[in-house]
Write a sequence for this structure.
């Protein structure tokens, strides 16, 4: 197993790993990081299984990308994840105006449940009992369980 742990370069208060007007942080995670990993580790190929994992804003990205690209990722995990981009607003000084406004780019729930909820990779979602995102994570879990 090889772990690639990229950062968005501390872009502002965080990129959410979504497409922006001037940068595509999503494409970077989905395409460029795996390609760079293949260059650094020849055992990793274009057909190597990929998982995506994140914490907080990264958890939002992991869930959203797993829903948007269910054929690309074999598993996803989110720890104390924001479920909606708006959850991140209190943490960010700058505006999300440059972020994509597409539903599947601003809502992990919509990305997971809108297009192909029966084709999702295995998901692991955990959140601390005192975490401000706990109720949103529980609601997402409930919606996923109901969808099957």
């Amino acid at each position: 197993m090889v772990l690639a742990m990229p950062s968005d370069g501390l872009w502002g208060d965080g990129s959410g790993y979504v497409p922006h007007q001037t940068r595509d942080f999503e494409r970077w995670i989905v395409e460029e990081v795996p390609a760079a990993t293949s260059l650094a580790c020849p055992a990793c190929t274009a057909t190597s299984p990929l998982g995506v994992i994140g914490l907080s804003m990264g958890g939002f990205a992991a869930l959203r990308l797993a829903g948007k690209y269910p054929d690309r990722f074999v598993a996803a995990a989110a720890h104390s994840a924001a479920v909606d981009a708006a959850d991140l607003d209190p943490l960010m000084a700058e505006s999300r105006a440059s972020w994509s406004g597409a539903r599947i780019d601003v809502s992990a729930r919509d990305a997971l449940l809108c297009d192909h909820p029966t084709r999702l990779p295995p998901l692991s979602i955990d959140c601390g009992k005192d975490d401000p995102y706990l109720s949103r994570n529980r609601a997402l879990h409930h919606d996923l369980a109901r969808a099957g």
Remarks:
- The chain has a mean pLDDT of 89.
